[in-house]
Amino acid sequence: MVDYDVIVAGGGLTGTIAAQSIAHYSNQNLKILSIDRNLEIYPGRKSLSGWTCGDACSKEAVDYMTKRIKVQWTRPEIEHDVKGVMAFSPDKETKIPFDGAGYMLNRQKLQEIQNQRARKMGVDFDFEINLTGLIYDEQQVVGVQGIDNKTKLPYKKTAKIVVDATGVTSMLRNTLKNSTKVEKRIDRRDLESTGRYIMYFEPGTKELTEFDPDYCIIHLDQDIAPGGYGWVFPKGEKKVNIGLGVEKTLLEKRNIRLGKKDNVQTLMEEYLHRNPVIKNAKLSQDPEDINNNSGIFQVSVRRQNDCMVSGGYMMVGDSAWMPKPIDAGGIGPALIAGTIIGNNVVQAIEQNDVSEKNLWQYNLDFIKE
Ligand SMILES: Cc1cc2nc3c(=O)[nH]c(=O)nc-3n(C[C@H](O)[C@H](O)[C@H](O)COP(=O)(O)OP(=O)(O)OC[C@H]3O[C@@H](n4cnc5c(N)ncnc54)[C@H](O)[C@@H]3O)c2cc1C
Fold it and tell me: Three-class SS of residue 9?
């Protein structure tokens, strides 16, 4: 007898989409538990500095989710609409549009609303649980373990399937014992160190290559963001999510080439101050930004894990390195994988077979989409 049918480890963006999808496809007939290390008042926070993200996602990916599992995103979780993404060359002479219409999200609000919705769909929540590993019965994953930060006591919960949505640093994947097919560690060159500010500003010179209220702007420039790019994403006429991502070995080379000692933080400062449109910028003090207006976090930029399942275990979102290698966009893949995994989980449980072989279809379904 297990505690739950499904445990979703990690109650961030992807975990709570997956939980809602499982509830949807099972007609709310499965017992689902979402476990997260955050306090309940900071649901889905990536780290102490907040929900660090560029906050941009495509309308197409949101529509994909809405059409299939009937989860809708509106205001206030969508803060601003954009017509697309525009990438500029260093001299700004060349520009490439991509991704189509999209949204700028408020990740904190989004998470609060996602959790309310998941609760209404019957999902249970455990907060302040620091998960450290999986529980096994021979070659099968049968639960999770960790520490309950409220009581400081060991925590254990069992389930037929554990969905790992604990993000890029996943301890569950790192220590996975029942698979030789799942890659456990990521090459550090496949990780970008990224940071951003959420700010209000007074508009300076009008220059649509530097800030455009209708477009998410990307600056490709190896001096500004070696191995990555800088971004200026509008959250309103005078509000912006501005940041950049770098690959650390390329940053070291760039520093040697230019005789500098920059790190992500100093590059972010330089990038902000060189922008002629964004003047007198101040970190947003809005209640929904105050705990999230400045932060640095990692994102993977490689193909997803070749194998995302083992007996009783499935990965989704950043834990499976799903962000797209070209632009580090992880919200779109999270919406798609979070949606499809619900169907795969429900089918496997209904067939009473949660073996690696029977969960394999999820690998194929994700690649197809
Ligand atoms: C600076 C930056 C900018 C980005 N910009 C964009 C963008 O503009 N557009 C886009 O599409 N993508 C962007 N991304 C990527 C996007 O933010 C991620 O793909 C997305 O947040 C992934 O969500 P997730 O739920 O899989 O992981 P996370 O958001 O990392 O959530 C993981 C959850 O699991 C919890 N958790 C972790 N470990 C444990 C544990 N041991 N025990 C219990 N709980 C745990 C965490 O607290 C968190 O709640 C960006 C990323 C960064 C870092």
Answer: strand
pLDDT tens per residue, range 261-313? 999 999 999 999 999 999 999 999 999 999 999 999 999 999 999 999 999 99
In a domain, 238, yes or no: yes
80 CA distance to ligand 1 centroid (A)?
20
Q: Which residues contact 29 (CB under 8 A, 6 or more apart)?
A: none
Residues 73, 133, single domain; the answer is yes
Asked whether residue 82 is assigned to any structural domain, the reply reads no
The string of pLDDT tens digits covering residues 105-137 is: 999 999 999 999 999 999 999 999 999 999 999
The tally of CA atoms less than 13 A away on the side-chain side of residue 181 is 13
Q: State the Cα–Cα distance between residues 71 and 65, nearest whole angstrom.
A: 7
Q: Which atom of ligand 1 is nearest to the CA of 131?
A: 42
**Phi, psi (degrees; rounded to nearest 5) at 32:** -120, 135
Structure-token match 């197409």, residue found? 60
- Is this complex scored with an ipTM above 0.90? yes
Give domain status of residue 196, yes or no: yes
Position 38 pLDDT exceeds 90: yes
Nearest CA to ligand 1 atom 31: 12
- Assign residue 84 a region (left: φ > 0; alpha: ψ between -120 and 50; beta: otherwise): left
39 and 178: one domain? yes
From ligand 1's centre to the CA of 276, what distance in Å?
Answer: 31
Contact 354, 160 (CB under 8 A): yes
Q: pLDDT class for 337, splitting at 50, 70, 90?
A: very high
Quick check: helix, strand or coil at residue 1?
coil
Residue that terminates a domain, selected from 270, 296, 322: 296
Same domain? For 271 and 342 the reply is no
Q: Which helix (H) or strand (E) holds 119?
A: helix 107-120
Residue 200, beta-bridge partner list? 239, 282
Average pLDDT rounded to a whole number, residues 347-358: 98
114 CA distance to ligand 1 centroid (A)? 15
Bridge partners of residue 282, in order along the sequence: 200
